[in-house]
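Lab manual, section 2.4: Encoding a predicted structure.

Procedure: take the sequence of the chain (170 residues), apply the prediction step described in section 2.3, and record the output as structure tokens. A sample record is shown.
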Amino acid sequence: MKLYQIAFLFSLLVLSSCGNPKDSKKEDKQSIKINQPVEEKSTSQDGVTEIILTGNDQMRFNLKEIKVDAGDKVKLTLKHIGQLDVKVMGHNFVLLKPETNINKFATKAVDAKDNDYIPQESNAVIVHTKMIGGGEQTTITFDAPEKGVYDFICSFPGHVALMQGKFIVE
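Recorded output:
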């Protein structure tokens, strides 16, 4: 191997090892939050199911499936673990009635900016949170609907493609 090839490989090695260790730790923490279990359910003794749902700047919820028991009170906390402003990367949680066409709902939601992207004339929503931005969180409490499988989404324009999941009432 020639000297210039060795020097080139050595510089690549040095450059690839450079970087702020804090940045890589931050990325690791973010990936851990993103890759949490597919389902999460933790019921307290008083019949309240507490759910923590996170959304990030990459338009991802940490959960794709949420299971609750019929008759339970549900306390859902939505945390925006990203940094972007609500106007750029807002997130909410919208629980839809069965057989709601998600894409049609999302199309109507685009025009409902002043109402947290929830169409006022729609009767498809069971419950929803307010829209939040990076570093914010919001909590809602509601009674679990009857047994069945429901869709949940983020209704911010364009987010529904990646930010949706199943809300299962057993």
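Check your result against the sample. Residues 38-169 form a domain with the Immunoglobulin-like fold (CATH 2.60.40.420).
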